[in-house]
Amino acid sequence: MLPETARFGILVHLLSTMRRATRFYATYATRHISIGGLERCSAYNRTGNDVPSNAPMTTLIAAGAASLTVLAAGWRWLRGRDAAVRSAMRLEADQAANDSLNQLAAFGRALASAVESSAARQVFWRFMPAFAGNREVWLLTRRGDRWESLVHDRAGDERNEESIEASANRVLAEGHHSKGLMIDDEWCLPLVAGETLVGVMGVRNLPELSPFDTSVIQAAVGLLALSVRNCQLHADTRESTVRDGLTGCFTRAYALEALQAELRRSRRTRRPVSVLMIDIDGFSTFNQRHGHAVGDALLAAIGARLATMLRGTDIKCRYGGDEFLIVLPDTMAQGAEHVAANLAEALGHMTLDGTVEATPQVSVGLAVSGKSEGDAKALISSAESALKQAKAQGVPYCTTLLAKAI
Questions:
Q1: What's the CA gap between 41 and 54, in Å, rounded?
Q2: Residue 197, strand partner residues
Q3: Both 210 and 62 in a single domain?
Q4: Of 95, 129, 163, which residue is a domain's last?
Q5: Which of 137, 180, 237, 381 keeps 20 to 30 A from 221, CA to CA?
Q6: Which among 348, 378, 331 has a CA at the least distance from the CA of 286?
Q7: CA Rg value for the chain
Q8: CB 23 within 8 A of CB 48
Q9: Does residue 110 lie within any of the structural domains?
Q10: Reduced to 3 states, what is the DSSP secondary structure of residue 190?
Q11: Are 325 and 380 in contact (CB under 8 A)?
């Protein structure tokens, strides 16, 4: 059997021959009718030469019929070939859609079992690049009023976190119900769970995404948003179990874990973390004078005051006894000193139901992370050293800089 290209070439040749034959037949018939004869006539063939006068009419009719037969057969073949191609394309599209649905189902199952952010990140990298056609992708999650965690391929994406946050802020300004923005060569989509924006995902639009690609990515983003929100709710539940029942502040164990996480983020963003260590001077004497119940009430009041004076992103912990540890993310030494002075002033003069006019003196030690600082315990130790200096010098607070502030 001849290959398809050869068959197609023969068909084109036949159609061309048929067209010439049909033109010849039409010319001959017209000339024959014009002179009123039924047996013979003169006409021009394809070269312009006269047709022999003895060409029978029946022969020309047969030639015309044969040409029309070839034309009909060729047309049927072309239509059949076109239908076969369209059918194959539909089958291919259906198979691609079925594969994508299976992958989305697997993605959803994997995300459902990921209750920790670290596990969700692994699922993200396992599936999302395939959904995006191996284009560059990044994910920036949001909690409360700040961006929280960035997930991107540092080897393939040269953009820094500030640039990515700027793109995410543009999506945030657009509103929760936005279908995404095309920013430069990136498609940035909001991750919305209910009415809460929990993040933004970016996909490099090179090569340009097809409508099918965009529909698959949008479906994946919907599943991802629910997973991110689920991880946040799980963290909130876990957080409720690591709070001190008396003061409402976090426990010491949580303080170490949270500070270590902030230091990792600090190395990535190149923004400092400041730590305050607060101690109530003479608290044991205060307890002896007023009783332990009043001492507990004082600690609870301090916890409540810290909650009202500090930012929602600041981490407030009861480090032990009458000591409190405050973690101030993205805070330089000058800002941390301002916070320490305000806290020393406010906590040093508190009233408890009008029965206690003043509390014992409050001392504050302050430490600021340096460019290479990555040990939470070392930073806390520096804050404790500054606290001892403040107590020895009789000043409200003292500062220790581990290195030049970032």
A1: 8
A2: 192
A3: no
A4: 95
A5: 237
A6: 348
A7: 40
A8: no
A9: no
A10: strand
A11: yes
pTM of the entire predicted model: 0.51
- Over residues 147-168, the pLDDT tens digits come to 888 888 755 556 778 889 999 9
> Quick one: which of 246, 376, 367, 389 has its CA closest to 318?
246
The number of beta carbons lying within 10 Å of the beta carbon of residue 393 is 10
Tens of pLDDT along 84-135? Answer: 667 766 776 667 677 888 889 899 999 999 888 889 999 999 999 999 999 9
Q: Which amino acid is at 159?
A: R
**Spatial separation of the C-alpha atoms in residues 320 and 326, rounded to whole Å:** 13
The residue written with tokens 């806290």 in the block is 343
Query: What is the end-to-end Cα distance of the chain in Å, rounded?
Result: 77
Note whether 334 and 314 are within 8 A (CB).
no
Is the peptide bond preceding residue 207 cis, with omega within 30 degrees of 0?
A: yes
Query: What is residue 334's three-state secondary structure?
Result: helix
Residue 190 CB coordination number (10 Å): 23
Same domain, 180 and 292: no
Range of the domain at 14: 4-95
In whole angstroms, what is the distance from residue 168 CA to residue 174 CA? 10
Tell me the pLDDT tens digit for each residue of 305-315. 888 888 888 88
Q: Domain total for the chain?
A: 3
